[in-house]
Write a structure and sequence with these properties.
Blueprint: H1 9-22, E1 27-35, E2 41-48, E3 51-59, E4 65-71, E5 77-83, E6 86-92, E7 97-103, E8 112-114, H2 117-136, H3 145-157, H4 162-168, E9 171-172, E10 175-176, H5 183-199, H6 204-221, E11 238-240, E12 246-248, H7 249-255, E13 258-264, H8 271-285, E14 290-296, H9 301-308, E15 314-317, H10 325-329, E16 337-342, E17 345-350, H11 356-361
Parallel strand pairs: 1-7, 13-14, 14-15
Antiparallel strand pairs: 1-4, 2-3, 2-5, 5-6, 7-8, 9-10, 11-12, 13-16, 16-17
């Protein structure tokens, strides 16, 4: 079984879908319709070291239809469409086709992106940022804890994704959403940097992210830092299951010799295979003192409930409103993440889900 880290899903699935739909070719496409843009020129732009430059353009007709094709870069990237003084950003993971629908009068605010999971995720990010600005003003953006909890959860769910890179570097009116000099913000940057370092070592952004994290951590502590975080303690997790019953991790750890602490997203592509591995272990050792305490981080609560009701172990929900403090406490940088708690102490971390059974056996 291949690695189940959910950050990998965007690296390959988009390419396979595109190959199946367009019959080959090492290129991606962006197309769509812009209402009310007759006679205006729309420019497709790419970036290099923060500098945007044009790579193609088209003069829109009365219908507003357009299509751009471009050779794949070999790694995920962020591009933008510019119409006058308005810009609309979209991600390309591989060779997929992205569709844009908008109107000239609100080109950068009232639009839809479809065609890939990353495109829809980026659209969701920008929409949430606009809502936060409308609610509290631009100056309050870096301190908007509600917004940053949600975005932080999205990044920790897919830290090696191009949208995570986009969020970290996003600025609105010169105001940065994430400030590397802020200890909490830099922790999130470190999680993304670590994921890029592990899964995208050849990506040109990896070195930048690593240096961004390390230099700011060094400045804050006065010492040379690495991306790896120290081993965590057993922090309490007190959340509700799908039936509305609250469960305490400390209590579960007290009542069972061994507890598998699992962080995952049920709606992710790799989740079913991951839970199959957990179920094998649970069936084998549940009568010998093993329990599983699984923390779900899905955005869709209904979908989580539908999945959770079929599982025999303890499943609790960490909603976007609950924030990312629990993830920070347990240094969760990739999903799924699996810990082994023995007699109330956090003793092991299992990187490969296929090794969970073997690891649990050591402690029972």
């Amino acid at each position: 079984m291949k690695s189940l880290n959910m950050t990998i899903k965007c690296l390959g699935s988009a390419a396979l879908i595109a190959l199946a739909s367009c019959g080959g070719g090492n290129e991606w496409k962006v197309s769509g319709q812009i209402e009310g843009a007759d006679g205006q020129t729309m420019v497709l732009e790419a970036s290099s070291n923060g500098r945007w430059f044009p790579i193609d353009s088209v003069k829109l007709n009365e219908a507003g239809n357009f299509k751009f094709r471009h050779a794949a870069a070999g790694y995920p990237d962020i591009y933008r469409l510019r119409l006058g003084d308005k810009s609309l950003y979209f991600p390309i993971d591989s060779i997929e086709s992205v569709t844009v629908l908008s109107k000239a009068s609100a080109f950068d605010t009232e639009y839809t992106l479809t065609g890939s999971e990353s495109a829809e995720m980026l659209m969701h990010v920008d929409r949430r940022v606009r809502e936060a600005i409308a609610r509290n003003g631009l100056a309050a953006l870096p301190g908007d804890t509600l917004l940053k909890r949600e975005l932080g959860g999205m990044m920790l769910g897919d830290p090696a994704g191009i949208v995570s890179y986009y969020i970290i570097n996003k600025k609105v009116g010169g105001v940065a959403l994430y400030n590397p000099e802020n200890k909490g913000d830099n922790r999130i940057i470190g999680a993304v940097a670590n994921a890029f370092d592990q899964y995208r070592p050849d990506d040109p952004r990896t070195k930048y992210l690593r240096n961004l994290f390390i230099s700011n951590r060094r400045a804050a502590t006065g010492t040379v830092a690495t991306i790896e975080a120290p081993e965590v303690a057993l922090f309490e997790i007190d959340l509700y299951d799908n039936k509305g019953v609250k469960h305490s991790l400390n209590k579960v750890a007290e009542e069972n010799k061994v507890v598998i602490l699992s962080f995952t997203v049920y709606g992710a592509e790799a989740s079913p295979a991951y839970n199959v591995e957990l179920n094998k272990v649970y069936d084998r050792y549940s009568k010998s003192g093993l329990e599983i305490f699984q923390v779900a981080l899905d955005e869709d609560e209904y979908q989580w409930k539908q999945s959770a009701k079929n599982l025999p172990w303890v499943t609790v929900y960490n909603s976007p409103a609950d924030g990312v403090q629990t993830l920070a406490n347990y240094n969760v940088q990739l999903l799924p993440t699996t810990y082994i708690i023995v007699n109330g102490e956090l003793l092991d971390r299992v990187a490969d889900p296929a090794q969970i059974s073997q690891t649990v056996a050591k402690y029972l």
